């Protein structure tokens, strides 16, 4: 018994120490109504399950102590076989808990649906288009006609409608302090609605492995006041975004002009190591192999650091829609036109998997 107690205490101390080393318990320290609701939902489910777990652990320890060999006063009933009261407890309590958890799951799935708008009308939402480019994130503000790379800003208490797609393999867009993750898939548009109830800087990243440079797909989310947001937008549109400090190290952004198809194409990073590229060039024999090697050389090796925060003072019209339609034209043929609705049940051949909610929505040029 003494050894068991020491083991349990050691595990508790180790768990507390590891939690401390992990820093901010971001999933339990939310900064938005969606993430807060999801956190409360998770904790409620844990507390309800502990109604079974804790008594079971205590009874297991108590039984072991009560019926130890040295306790001669414990009841010995070798012919005992049934107890109606025990049957009611061991079956009834779990059934009640499972039924409650089922209701909680059903309610939470609808209440915190990422596709559910948080504003009472579309006019109250700010739309931000998100493109998962190869090992970086591109954010387009269609209403402000600006774009950013690896940074997103919006006013506090402003309802945000993210429209998410991918320009390479399947990825996952995640801002844990503000909402749950949502998949980004080529040829599809998924949605995520959220808001931040306070100003601050929050971490965002890809939570789905997508290649060698996956670990560099990190970005910062700035929740600012409305006047600060307007000043930021004006600074970018006037070409003065390079004066904006983007992190606590004093780093400033890179300011550029128009984000058009050519500039967007230049943002793509390589997805191979340098030795792999060298091997492709060395062993290329056929025209197809030489072409693939030339493309790999042009893209370069995969990044070892996140792409610097970059601002664009204007954006080519329809850029976000063209990224989606590019994959749909490959899927349906070259005669597919830009205004065609995206297939709601299909995905590009290299992305066969999707969760139930991550289905495509029509491209409307919003």
TrEMBL record:
Q: Does the keyword Lipoprotein apply?
A: yes
What keywords are assigned to this protein?
A: Cell membrane, Electron transport, Lipoprotein, Membrane, Oxidoreductase, Palmitate, Respiratory chain, Signal, Transmembrane, Transmembrane helix, Transport
Which residues are listed as membrane-spanning?
46-65, 85-108
Can you give the residue ranges of the Cytochrome oxidase subunit II transmembrane region profile domain? 19-116
A GO cellular component annotation in the UniProt record? plasma membrane
Q: Does the keyword Transferase apply?
A: no
Under Pfam families, the record lists: COX2 (PF00116), COX_ARM (PF06481)
Biological process according to GO: ATP synthesis coupled electron transport
Name the Gene Ontology molecular function terms of this record.
copper ion binding; cytochrome bo3 ubiquinol oxidase activity; cytochrome-c oxidase activity; oxidoreductase activity, acting on diphenols and related substances as donors, oxygen as acceptor
Q: Please report the stretch or stretches of sequence annotated as the Cytochrome oxidase subunit II copper A binding domain.
A: 123-235
* Region described as Disordered: 335-366
Membrane-related topology note: Multi-pass membrane protein
- In which compartments does the protein localize? Cell membrane
Hey, which family's this protein in? Belongs to the cytochrome c oxidase subunit 2 family.
- Please give the NCBIfam families that the UniProt record associates with this protein: CyoA
Under what name is this protein listed? Ubiquinol oxidase subunit 2
- Origin species: Acinetobacter sedimenti
């Amino acid at each position: 018994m003494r050894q068991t107690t020491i083991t349990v205490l050691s595990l508790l101390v180790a768990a507390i120490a590891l939690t401390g080393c992990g820093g901010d318990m971001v999933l339990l320290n939310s900064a938005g109504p969606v993430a807060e609701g999801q956190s409360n939902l998770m904790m409620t489910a844990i507390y309800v399950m502990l109604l079974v777990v804790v008594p079971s652990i205590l009874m297991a320890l108590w039984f072991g102590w009560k019926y130890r060999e040295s306790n001669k006063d414990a009841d010995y009933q070798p012919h005992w076989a049934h107890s109606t009261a025990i049957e009611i407890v061991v079956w009834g309590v779990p059934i009640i808990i499972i039924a409650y958890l089922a209701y909680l799951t059903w309610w939470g799935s609808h209440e915190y649906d990422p596709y559910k708008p948080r504003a009472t009308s579309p006019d109250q939402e700010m739309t931000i288009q998100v493109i998962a480019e190869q090992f970086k994130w591109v954010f387009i503000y269609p209403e402000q006609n600006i774009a950013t790379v690896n940074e997103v800003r919006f006013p506090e208490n402003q309802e945000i409608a993210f429209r998410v797609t991918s320009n390479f393999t399947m990825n996952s867009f995640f801002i844990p302090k503000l909402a749950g993750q949502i998949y980004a898939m080529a040829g599809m548009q998924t949605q995520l609605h959220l808001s931040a109830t306070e100003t601050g800087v929050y971490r965002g990243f890809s939570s789905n492995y997508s290649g060698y440079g996956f670990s560099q797909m990190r970005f910062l989310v700035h929740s600012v006041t409305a006047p600060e947001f307007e000043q930021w937008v004006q600074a970018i549109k006037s070409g003065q975004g390079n004066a904006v400090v983007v992190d606590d190290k004093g780093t400033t952004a890179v300011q550029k002009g128009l984000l058009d198809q050519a500039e967007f194409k230049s943002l793509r990073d390589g997805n191979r190591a340098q030795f792999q590229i060298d091997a492709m060039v060395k062993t290329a024999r056929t025209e197809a192999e030489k072409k693939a090697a030339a493309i790999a050389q042009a893209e370069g090796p995969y990044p070892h650091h996140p792409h610097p925060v970059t601002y664009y003072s204007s954006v080519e019209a329809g850029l976000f829609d063209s990224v989606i339609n590019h994959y749909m034209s490959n899927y349906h043929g070259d005669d597919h036109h830009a205004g065609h609705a995206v297939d709601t049940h299909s995905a590009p051949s290299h992305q066969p998997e999707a969760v139930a909610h991550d289905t495509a929505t029509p491209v409307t040029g919003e």
